[in-house]
Amino acid sequence: MTLPLRKDLEGFEPYGAPQIDVPVILNVNENPYAPAPEVVRDIADAAAQAALGANRYPDRDFMELRRDLAAYLLKESGVEIPAEQIWAGNGSNEIMLHLLTAFGGPGRIALGFDPTYSMYPEYARDSLTEWRTLPRRADFTIDRDAALAAIAELSPSVVLLASPNNPTGTALSLAEIEAIAEAARGAGPEGTDTVVVIDEAYGEFRRADTPSALALREVYPHLVVTRTMSKAFGMAGLRLGYLAAQRPVVDALTVVRLPYHLSAFTQAVARAALSHSETLMAQIASLRAERDQLVEWLVENGFSPAPSDANFVLFGPLDDRRKVWDELLARGILIREVGPPGHLRVTVGSPEEMAAFRTALLEVT
Ligand SMILES: Cc1ncc(COP(=O)(O)O)c(C=O)c1O
Q: Ligand 1 centroid to 183 CA: how many Å?
């Protein structure tokens, strides 16, 4: 049999980090703490309640969930956002696909800054958008002049910027985001404004002096800030990502979303989880402290970690990173082989998991 597979999909393997069942899993930037029993109970009740109406399609516009997400963002970032300016999908992965389906497409360019999240080129490929990148500087920051020049030269319809960036942990300053958002005005195809996406999947882990881009959405109608419940919120299994942007952006996304894309169960469970945001987020401060200790420890032991605003740390230099990765795995510790050559990325786990990682790393290097 020969399938009429699109030529641009030939030879691709499905994306995904290895799912290996080992005692210490530190490879996909999850929160190590399972939800508390009272959260589990409320989630189960909410799912049962949703089941009572499961013969009906779910609420297409999920305004209650959007209101709850807005309330959470107000608490987390101090930024007040009307519920109409929030949009949600099955993980921020789906949100990105909505964005590129609406604003990318044949003959259009999405611009990113390498090394960055490895799904970005896949969203571009799937939406038939050309993916172009600029290299980050040696310290993984963005070369602002080069970024502004590329925006002017390429007229991208979308710029994708993770802050904190994966796999480097590097956050952008507000000044950098503002410079890019200014340069994006009228820089898109046919004089449109380039849509600037700030992917804050790890936003809650940012250090105290690192601001969120959420407030800038009021100033720049073409600025989008994406978030997820998969990381700090400890709900990777739920699949709930969302964004904040002005109304015209959200309206465009409603055109390309599949009908009823957010199941009644997802909506109900997300709302139940959000009602416990304080409990679920209680670990964030300790995960941040654990991250900062890990960075210090790596420096003390002769490694060069990248400064991190996220719940993971990229570190090197390693002569043979594959060997280190293999030998850690043999000791029951799974981290990620990603980023520039000679580097590995480790997620911040519980104190016990980090102690196991530190002991093993010293043994294998
Ligand atoms: C930078 C970044 N953005 C988005 C995502 C997607 O997260 P999710 O689809 O679980 O919301 C990830 C996942 O690792 C990520 O690292």
A: 26
Residue 270's contacts (CB-CB under 8 Å, 6 or more residues apart) are 65, 68, 88, 229, 235, 238, 240
Q: How far is CA 353 from CA 20, 149, 335, 357, in A?
A: 16, 44, 11, 6
> pLDDT tens digits for 341-358?
999 999 999 999 999 999
Q: Which atom of ligand 1 is nearest to the CA of 230?
A: 10
92 lines ligand 1 (CB under 6 A): yes
pLDDT surpasses 80 at 37? yes
CA 13 to chain centre: 21
Structural domains in the chain plus CATH codes: 15-36+278-364 (3.90.1150.10), 39-275 (3.40.640.10)
Question: 162: Cβ below 6 Å to ligand 1?
Answer: yes
pLDDT digits (tens, 9 = 90+) for 19-31: 899 999 999 999 9
Closest CA to 59 of 76, 83, 81, 41: 83
Element housing 323 (H / E): helix 321-330
Q: What is the pTM of this model?
A: 0.97
Residue whose C-alpha is closest to residue 232's, from 12, 22, 30, 26: 30
Give phi and psi for 181, each to the nearest 5.
Answer: -65, -35
| Contact 29 CB / ligand 1 (< 6 Å) | yes
200 ligand 1 Cβ < 6 A: no
272 vs 305: CA distance, rounded Å: 37
CA of 31 to the centre of ligand 1 (A): 13
By three-state DSSP, how is residue 320 classified?
coil
Region of 340 please: left (phi>0), alpha (psi -120 to 50) or beta. beta
- pLDDT for res 313: 98
The residue with greater pLDDT, 282 or 132, is 132
316 φ, ψ (degrees, to nearest 5): -160, -165
In 210-287 the beta strands, taken as DSSP E runs, fall at 223-228, 241-244
